[in-house]
TrEMBL record:
Keywords: Coiled coil, Kinase, Metal-binding, Nucleus, Transferase, Zinc, Zinc-finger. GO terms for cellular component: transcription factor TFIIK complex. One of its GO terms (molecular function) is cyclin-dependent protein serine/threonine kinase activator activity. Its main location: nucleus. Residues 202-219 have a biased composition (Polar residues). GO terms for biological process: nucleotide-excision repair; regulation of transcription by RNA polymerase II; transcriptional start site selection at RNA polymerase II promoter. This is RNA polymerase II transcription factor B subunit 3.
């Protein structure tokens, strides 16, 4: 127990100036990727402000520069080192699956990356590995730059997509709130109209109330359909200007083939099941207790299907049941050995 306490104390103490984090809670530890020795920020300023200097750790001797120091993120410095190495190697070996003719070659490429990371992290053949890394970078410099430029463009398009999605969401909420306010004002006018009719009409009050309820029911159904149509139009406009659409387009050959997934996966065209009738229209969704008879019994999902926020976002119960059945039936009737012989 005493040794554990001493180790914990050393973790929070600068090994150079012996400053304790308990007495200086604002103290920050910095590490340099050259050796990953932990030094407090004050010692870094004191030792390296005038220029490069040897690492103050005994028997290290590596020349360090102040601008290379960074704040320690992970408590375990081995993890800190591996993350930095992966980032460095990944910036050079930056190809993706689409850059390879088949999955086997891409997996070999990934295995090579893992070998490099493992050697550099564990100090195995470091000089030779770094020399090979430098040679690869020099030989493929143009490819690396082009790939980084494409990735930067994709990242920029992703930000645009996220912004567009947020604007779409806000526009849907704005329209929904506006229609709710209009409906609230309309209901107030209808209540006043009902009171006036009950005071001046010879018809029974029950009949007048029933007539108004029928009119309100029809109007609510029309309003829900109207809201759905507006949402569909907004989504269609969004899809036409979707900045990520170009990344989802894949070239197909004359046989209309699709990329291989084990046991065909979700690309199987002919389903092995038939979907029961699920309430689709607004009226059916609202009256699921009757329209879902003989279909799937899931009060929770049908409860969500009635939620205005879910409806406004385009969520439908059909998607839930289709996915559940796809996962349940995926791979049925597939001969594994036959799959291997065709696609290996």
């Amino acid at each position: 127990m005493l040794q554990v306490a001493e180790d914990d104390q050393l973790k929070d103490m600068c090994p150079i100036c012996k400053t304790d984090k308990y007495l200086s809670p604002n103290m920050k530890f910095l590490v340099n990727p050259e050796c990953y020795h932990k030094i407090c920020e004050s010692c870094v300023d004191r030792i390296f402000s005038l220029g490069p200097a040897p690492c103050p750790y005994p028997k290290c001797g590596k020349i360090l520069r102040k601008n290379k120091f960074k704040q320690q993120i992970f408590e375990n410095l081995v993890i800190e080192k591996e993350i930095d190495i992966r980032r460095k190697v990944g910036a050079i070996y930056n190809k993706t699956e689409e850059d390879f003719p088949n999955l086997k070659e891409f997996n070999s490429y990934l295995e090579n990356i893992e070998d490099i990371v493992f050697k550099l992290t564990n100090g195995i053949d470091v000089e030779q590995t770094e020399a090979e890394l430098t040679q690869y970078e020099q030989e493929h410099r143009i490819e690396i730059i082009e790939k980084n430029m494409r990735q930067s463009q994709k990242d920029a398009d992703l930000i645009k997509y996220q912004d567009a999605m947020e604007r779409l969401k806000q526009e849907k909420l704005k329209i929904q709130k506006k229609m709710e306010l209009e409906d609230l004002e309309f209901n107030k006018l209808q209540q006043q109209d009902l009171l006036d009719r009950m005071a001046n009409s010879s018809m029974p009050s029950e009949e007048l109330i029933k007539q108004q309820q029928n009119q309100l029911t029809k109007r609510n159904s029309q309003r829900k359909r109207q809201l759905q149509q507006i949402n569909n139009q907004l989504e269609q406009q969004f899809n036409q200007s979707n900045p990520l659409a170009k990344y989802n387009v894949t070239d197909q050959d004359e046989s209309n083939s699709t990329p291989f997934t084990p046991f065909q996966g979700d690309r199987e065209v002919h389903k092995k099941y038939e979907l029961l009738h699920i309430p689709q229209t607004i009226d059916e969704v609202v009256d699921t207790e009757n329209t879902a008879t003989g279909s799937y019994h899931d009060p929770y999902i049908y409860g969500l299907a009635k939620n205005k926020e879910y409806l406004g976002a385009g969520w439908r119960a059909t998607n839930v049941f289709e996915r559940a059945l796809d996962e349940a039936f995926m791979g049925l009737g597939c001969n594994i050995e036959a799959e291997k012989s065709i696609h290996v």
